[in-house]
Specification:
The chain has 469 residues and is an all-alpha fold. It is built from 23 helices and 2 strands. It has a domain of 106 residues. Helix content is 63%, strand content 1%.
């Protein structure tokens, strides 16, 4: 045995596999452990600021490397921040974007990602100074002047300017961001009305573009203005998620709703957090992921005692959908009873995002659950009652309600009724191109075949296929 061990040692030494030379912490000079791949010992890594709200003071050995000098020479703050994060001093893993965005305090992780990739460029002098001060960059490496310590950073160019031989003119005021936030919310209301009438396709490019505009505003906003813009950003991201959902781009819908949740959580808005969690649950049911949908609906109800009644109602409605997909009829019925009780209560504010969740709305959503649970006869009367009270400005959802009624008629062997109602729904979906409505109509041929109506199934299937041509 000893001879074998000795032979192995001789072989490894002959191959150059001798023990590595000792390595030392770049910060304090202590010897690093043999298996460490970091450039700093554990105590120094703690001192480096990971987990803190402020960036650490890093020595000259960090800043004056070729890698950092080259990034500063590019005059691109995104390149500097990226080089900062990937500096070997942080070890074999880059410093997380979440950590650096926390140190900067003015950008989210997703914004920082766009800045590093070059999609968003930091050009304004006040922003450059903020980044340099927050990350404690050496002044002699910068391509711009830092104000003296304690001196206020200059205002953005264009905030104040002088007329030739005339007075100073203020281009913006302290109320500009608030006025923009109010205007953006008013615009969002118009987008919502357009979506209800014409469907999502005309808004697919607009909503994300407006969201990017809000993110740009956030990069300079402070205090109350920032909180108000965070609310606006969450609303636009949630709406963009809805638009993507109704076009069938469910992954993009989830991504947008995740951005919405980040904004709402930073703003500390419990009602908006609950609403967005409910929306994420709704996307999950469209993706046929009922277990995830149920967890998200439960999370939306986590602080139910502090939520307005309609927020609870719409989250319970979503919980019922999850149970319907899981074929748990008793739990579904019990949850719908709770949704009805909350929906019957009055709305606290005109700004209540869930004010649409009336008893009539819950009744229509309950019918969808009955269809999922194979109780179509129960659903037909409910849907007919809802349609009798329908408001024409909700045309896109009229198509959805008709498609659900057509499915219920087909499942109840009422073939002629199913085809008449389905044709009405098809007329609307040709204009609105609602993915949810198309999904419901696409179920009908299979149901008709199971009931022996093969010819009708083929004819209707051709009509559905024509939607995509």
């Amino acid at each position: 045995m000893r001879e074998r061990i000795q032979r192995r040692r001789s072989m490894t030494e002959g191959l150059g596999m001798t023990s590595a030379a000792p390595r030392y912490c770049m910060r304090c000079g202590s010897r690093l452990t043999r298996d460490s791949r970091a450039s700093m010992c554990a105590p120094c890594r703690q001192l480096s600021g990971i987990g803190s709200d402020h960036a650490p003071d890093l020595g000259a050995d960090f800043w004056y490397t070729d890698q950092m000098r080259d990034s500063f020479a590019s005059r691109d703050m995104g390149a500097v921040v990226r080089a900062y994060r990937y500096h070997p001093a942080h070890g074999h893993k880059a410093l997380p974007q979440e950590t650096v965005s926390r140190w900067l305090g003015t950008v989210t992780q997703s914004q920082l990602s766009r800045i590093e990739s070059g999609r968003n460029r930091v050009d304004a002098l006040d922003k450059l100074i903020h980044y340099a001060r927050s990350l404690k960059m050496p002044a002699d490496l910068l391509w711009f002047e830092l104000p003296e310590e304690g001196q206020e950073a200059p205002k953005r160019s264009g905030d104040i300017f002088a007329l030739p031989d005339g007075p100073l003119v203020a281009a913006t005021s302290s109320h500009t961001e608030s006025a923009l936030a109010d205007s953006l919310l008013e615009t969002l209301e118009l987008y919502s009305k357009m979506d209800n009438l014409a469907g999502p396709h005309s808004l697919v490019g607009i909503a994300p573009q407006q969201l990017r505009f809000v993110e740009d505003l956030l990069s300079n906003a402070r205090g109350k203005d920032r909180k108000q813009l965070l609310h606006v950003g969450a609303r636009y991201a949630e709406f963009a998620g809805w638009i993507y959902q109704d076009t069938g781009a469910l992954n993009s819908a989830m991504q947008m709703s995740s951005i919405a949740l980040d904004f709402a959580q930073e703003a500390g808005d419990e009602m908006l957090i609950s609403y967005i969690l409910m929306r994420r649950s709704n996307i999950a049911t469209d993706a046929k992921r009922p277990e995830l949908a149920l967890k998200l609906a439960d999370a939306a109800l986590d602080k139910a005692t502090r939520l307005p009644p309609r927020y609870c109602a719409v989250a319970l409605r979503q919980r019922a959908h999850s149970f319907a997909q899981l074929a748990q009829s008793d739990e579904c019925a019990h949850t719908l009873e709770g949704a009805f009780k909350f929906a019957e209560r009055s709305v606290d504010s005109e700004k209540d995002l869930a004010q649409y969740c009336t008893p009539e709305y819950v009744e229509m959503e309950a019918a969808h659950c009955w269809i999922e649970l194979g109780q179509s006869d129960k659903a037909i009367g409910t849907l007919q009652h809802s349609l009798a009270e329908w408001k024409p400005e909700f045309r896109r959802d009229l198509g959805l309600c008709l498609s659900r009624l057509a499915v219920a008629h087909a499942s109840s062997d009422q073939i002629d009724h199913a085809l008449i109602v389905a044709d009405r729904s098809l007329e609307i979906v040709r204009d609105t191109k609602s993915f949810r409505t198309e999904n419901q109509l696409a179920r009908i041929p299979g149901i008709l075949i199971n009931r022996g109506a093969e010819d009708e199934a083929r004819r209707f299937d051709r009509k559905i296929r024509s939607l995509k041509s």
